[in-house]
């Protein structure tokens, strides 16, 4: 039977997170922080504010050409420049040199068992059991699921751990039922 029949299907995944996936997670986690949101807000609003203040100061708001140019510049800033600047900032802050700074040489192999009653994470002889009621969110990002549980607990489950796309869909349907 499969998850479509209403019966939970136990799933076992064995994987080791790679550097790219871990960097993606760090960038994602930083993006949720208050510091990150404030920084992005400042980058997004600084140039448009400067353009608007310049229009007012030099009384350019009377000429439609300058207003049109201002709107064009602000639009380009917000939709073209800011995403590129933000990507550059994240790339500079979270790159492979971070592994040397925090002395990460390799990532451990992990076994994640999604059972009927709970989730069991095994690595180097340690077992962590997580009840589904403790799972607060499952967030899909570019290359993996970020499963948040009990405050700051995190499980990273890469998409490559699944054999086929339909397995991902069945997994999500099962997990949604368990955590809701």
* Radius of gyration, whole Å: 23 Å
The whole-number mean of residue pLDDT values reads: 91
Instruction: Please tally the β strands and state the result.
Output: 7
Helix content: 40-55%
* Helix count from the secondary structure assignment: 5
Oligomer designation: single chain
Instruction: Kindly estimate the percentage of residues that lie in beta strands according to DSSP.
Output: 15-25%
Quick one: overall form?
Answer: elongated
Tell me the distance between the termini: 22 Å
**Sheet of most strands:** 4 strands, antiparallel
Structural class: alpha+beta
H-E order = EHHHHEEEEEEH
Sequence of strands across the biggest β-sheet: 1-2-3-4
Low-confidence stretches: none
Description:
With 180 residues, the protein is α+β, with helices and mostly antiparallel strands. Helices cover 48% and strands 23% of the residues. It is built from 5 helices and 7 strands; from the N terminus they run E-H-H-H-H-E-E-E-E-E-E-H. The strands form 2 sheets. Strands 1-2-3-4 form a 4-stranded antiparallel sheet, with no helix packed on it. The protein has a 3-stranded antiparallel sheet with strand order 5-6-7. Strand 6 (144-149) and strand 7 (153-158) form a beta hairpin. Helix 2 (34-57) packs antiparallel against helix 3 (64-93). The longest helix has 30 residues, at 64-93. The protein is elongated. It starts with 10 loop residues before the first strand and ends with a helix.
């Amino acid at each position: 039977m499969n998850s479509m029949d209403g019966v939970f299907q136990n799933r076992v995944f064995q994987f080791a997170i790679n550097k790219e996936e871990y960097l993606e997670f760090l960038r994602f986690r930083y993006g949720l922080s208050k510091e990150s949101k404030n920084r992005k807000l400042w980058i997004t609003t600084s140039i448009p504010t400067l353009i608007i203040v310049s229009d007012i100061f030099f009384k350019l708001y009377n000429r439609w050409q300058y207003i049109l140019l201002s709107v064009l510049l602000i639009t380009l800033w917000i939709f073209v420049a800011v995403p590129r600047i933000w990507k550059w900032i994240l790339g500079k802050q979270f790159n492979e040199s971070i592994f040397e700074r925090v002395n990460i040489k390799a990532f451990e192999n992990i076994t994640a068992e999604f059972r009927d009653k709970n989730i069991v994470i095994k690595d180097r002889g340690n077992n962590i059991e997580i009840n589904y009621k403790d799972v607060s969110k499952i967030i899909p990002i570019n290359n993996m699921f970020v499963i948040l549980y009990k405050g700051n607990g995190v499980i990273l489950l890469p998409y490559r751990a699944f054999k086929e796309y339909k397995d991902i869909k069945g997994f999500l349907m099962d997990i949604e039922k368990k955590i809701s």
